[in-house]
Amino acid sequence: MFQKNIPLRSLNTFGIAVTAKQFLEVTSLETLKEIVSNHKDLFILSGGSNILLTKDIDKPVLHLNTKGIEIVKQNPRSVWVKAQAGENWHEFVCWCLENDFGGLENLSLIPGNVGTSPMQNIGAYGVEIKDSFESLEALEISSGKIQTFYADDCAFGYRESVFKNTLKGQFIIVNVTFRLTVKDHLINDQYGAIREQLKVANAVDPGIHDISKAVIAIRRSKLPDPKKIGNSGSFFKNPVISAAHFLKLQTLHPEIPHYKLSEEQVKVPAGWLVEKCGFKGKRFGDAGVHEKQALVLVNYKNAQGNEILSLARTIQKTVSQKFEIDLEMEVNVL
Ligand code: EPU
User: Fold this and answer.
1) pLDDT at res. 50
2) Of 212, 219, 272, 331, which is best to mutate to test ligand 1, by the most ligand atoms within 8 angstroms of its C-beta?
3) Which residues of the chain have pLDDT under 50?
4) How would you classify the pairing of strands 57-64 and 19-26?
5) 159 has catalytic annotation
6) Which of 189, 241, 242, 314 has the most CB atoms at less than 10 Å from its CB?
7) Buried b vs exposed e over 250-283: b needs ≥16 C-beta within 10 Å?
8) How far is the CA of 192 from the centre of ligand 1 (A)?
9) What's the half-sphere exposure (Cβ side, CA atoms, 13 Å) at 17?
């Protein structure tokens, strides 16, 4: 049933050339259940958009490719839409927009699949999926049973969920249900870059389609297209530091961008820190730091996972020495 020695280069957005010793594309829940009843130690590969592969994978690799989008409930204001894990995220967002369903437009063009979107509570331009999340169904590997998780069960945080922490490796998310608006959409246009882009596009009273177009334009201008240059979006999380630490930095660098989270905590953009350390646009062999967004590490062609990882560690060390801030990786490393 498993295929042997399958190259994974086209199945991870970093474009790292590693091999799966055993590989199976799964297109139905029945097959998934059957595999899980016989194999407990599996490697689940979905959209491959948040992983840095540094070696060949010995465990059986399941490439989750289940498809399907359905409306499960509707009232005059809201609609509940269930999408199967293997649906491509951006195509799903486009489907919602085509149906005039609001809530996910700020998350346009994010690489990856629906099934992994709750794992790290994907977010962009002032919105996270937790804002429209209703529930998900996941297969428990140990028991083979399907379990439903509501938002409270998922412990969503900034690029975090229970599936990255206490329940890591225990469940396979098989579908996700979102609660979306059918009218009176909540327009999230407060993010500076979105406002500027809306102005450029002359969108006076913006709707969800204008927001999506603005997000797509911003992302295209700043973030590399993984089909052209391998990458995994933001490699690090934006760190949260104490107000006292921030004041010290601000005295030295009055221009430092920041978001005040509370009286005690301030979030600073990792991209700014990495740029200040001189890494923006730098290239070391085929591994590099994107020239327009220093938070994005790139594989120009044939970089190995370890070369990207070693660059990431050098960046962490330099940022730590210069700013006394420890950058945490957002991307999962194998
Ligand atoms: N900045 C720099 N230099 C850089 C990059 C950024 O100075 O090289 C500064 C910008 O000028 C701006 C600030 O940092 O003042 C924030 O930059 P940006 O708006 O590009 O957002 P970000 O904080 O770097 C986060 C997310 C992105 C998301 C954007 C927009 C994280 C780790 N990243 O990036 O998410 O698209 O906000 O909401 O939170 C991802 O997770 O893969 C991702 C791309």
Assistant:
1) 94
2) 272
3) none
4) parallel
5) yes
6) 241
7) eeeeeebeeeeeeeeebbbbbbbbbbbbebbebe
8) 12
9) 6
- pLDDT at position 334: 95
Catalytically annotated residue among 132, 135, 212, 234 = 234
Cα of 237 from ligand 1 centre, angstroms: 9
Please give the C-alpha separations between residue 254 and each of 120, 140, 192, 261, 269, in angstroms, as whole numbers.
Answer: 32, 50, 19, 19, 14
**Closest listed residue to residue 233, CA positions, set 225, 241, 244:** 225
Told to judge if 313 belongs to the known catalytic residues of this protein, a careful annotator would answer no
- What tokens appear for 136 in the block? 């998900």
Looking at residue 263, what is its pLDDT? Answer: 97
Supply the pLDDT for residue 202.
94
At residue 1, the pLDDT reads 85
- Per-residue pLDDT of 86-142, as tens digits, reads 999 999 999 999 999 999 999 999 999 999 999 999 999 999 999 999 999 999 999
Q: Which amino acid is at 325?
A: I
Distance between CA atoms of residues 177 and 272, nearest Å: 35
Q: How far is CA 88 from CA 34, 84, 179, in A?
A: 24, 9, 18
Residues having CB closer than 6 A to ligand 1 are: 124-125, 193, 222, 233-234, 237-238, 257, 269, 271-272, 275, 280, 293-295, 330
> If DSSP codes are grouped into helix, strand and coil, which group holds residue 333?
strand
Q: Is 179 a catalytic residue?
A: no
pLDDT per position as a tens digit, 21-48: 999 999 999 999 999 999 999 999 999 9
202-210: Cβ within 8 A, 24+ apart? 208/97, 208/100, 208/102, 208/105, 209/97, 209/105
Nearest CA to ligand 1 atom 29: 124
